[in-house]
Automatic annotation (TrEMBL):
Residues 247-268 are annotated as: Disordered. It comes from the Eukaryota. It comes from Labeo rohita (Indian major carp). InterPro entries: DUF1759. This is Guanine nucleotide-binding subunit alpha-12 isoform X2. Pfam families: DUF1759. The lineage of its organism: Eukaryota, Metazoa, Chordata, Craniata, Vertebrata.
């Protein structure tokens, strides 16, 4: 009896299978390696179901719950401008799939080149095996040089009008342009560092400031540093930002110019001569015009106006109309003229 109990206690049994068996009953059957166990020895336990499908499939990014109003687009190159080309190249790099073919990207590039010079330059590589890559390389050499963009921005700043005294808005705009130039040069590496440390750029930009602020910048730089006076674009930009914060940004309204009222024009008298002995004296007026006839003899005026004959001393005619002088011969006239 004891041996039977020991044999029954240490008899090997098959453990529960790893994969559950789905059935209509609520218990799992445990099988023995030797024989089928009686139902009285089956230990009931809860069924373990398989994980849901949503846990087996990796989750995807949730879709946006709102509709996009505006998305990125490809700008057009409408003029030979480095900043426009920079925006177009940025859009091509971000929006085009790198796996697209060269012909497809080349076609997109040509559609947005509206400048004849840039379009001709890109069309030169239409039969190349990689037209997009070569066209972008050629366009970079012409429009994509960072130094060209920096120098163009510097020229645009120099073309700005000079800052007037108390013009806070103008000083703020000038400070922003210089700050943008400094930020561009700082991202250009060693080439931009050479332009940042160039003192001649600062001297040219200082000419845009009033004389008082020009001297104030020099005093600020000399007080902060010992030794010879030196400064660069970064120092000038930082000082400009501090000055712009202290200045009011209100736009100065020009004072109205007081114009003097026009003086009334005096009345002018006009004398009209109708004959040798009478004249009409007319006075012009806005209210009414009344002609005044004045009788006046003008013997003296006519005598002063008519020349005296040099041959007969008559005041009634000229020597060219003198009958006595005209009766003389040519030789007599010449001799008379020589005697005079």
């Amino acid at each position: 009896m004891v041996s039977f109990l020991l044999h029954f206690k240490y008899q090997p049994r098959i453990t529960q299978c790893t994969q559950p068996i789905h059935c209509q009953v609520n218990h799992c059957l445990v099988l023995s390696s030797s024989s089928v166990q009686p139902t009285s020895n089956v230990q009931p336990h809860h069924l373990t179901f398989a994980p849901p499908l949503s846990q087996l499939v990796p989750p995807t990014a949730p879709l946006s719950s709102y509709r996009r109003v505006e998305g990125p687009s490809f700008p057009d190159l409408t003029r030979e401008d480095e900043s426009q080309y920079l925006m177009l190249k940025m859009a091509l790099s971000n929006l085009l799939d790198p796996g697209e073919s060269e012909k497809y990207k080349y076609h997109i590039l040509l559609d947005h080149l509206k400048v004849d010079q840039a379009r001709r330059l890109a069309l030169a590589y239409v039969y190349a095996p990689d037209p997009y890559t070569q066209a972008i390389r050629a366009l970079d050499e012409r429009y994509g040089q960072p130094r060209q963009l920096a120098l163009k921005e510097l020229r645009a700043i120099m073309e700005m009008p000079a800052i007037r005294i108390g013009d806070g808005r103008g000083l703020d705009q000038f400070s922003l342009r210089v700050q943008a130039l400094v930020g561009l040069l700082q991202t250009m590496g060693s080439e931009g560092l050479a332009e940042l440390t160039c003192g001649s750029h600062v001297e040219r930009l200082l000419e845009k400031l009033p004389h008082e602020q020009f001297c104030q910048f020099k005093r600020c730089m000399s007080s902060n540093r010992s030794g010879p006076l030196s400064y660069n674009l970064l120092d000038f930009s930082n000082w400009l930002q501090q000055e712009a914060r202290c200045q009011p940004r209100r736009e100065r309204t020009p004072q109205p110019v007081r114009q003097k009222p026009p003086l009334p024009h005096p009345l002018r008298n006009t004398t009209i001569l109708h004959g040798s002995k009478t004249a009409s004296h007319v006075t012009s007026s806005k209210a009414q015009v009344v002609p005044i006839i004045v009788s006046q003899s003008l013997p003296n005026t006519l005598s002063e106006r008519c020349p005296v004959c040099a041959y007969c001393n008559s005041a009634e005619h000229h020597v060219s109309k003198c009958d006595d002088f005209l009766q003389l011969t040519k030789d007599q006239r010449i001799n008379w003229i020589k005697e005079q």
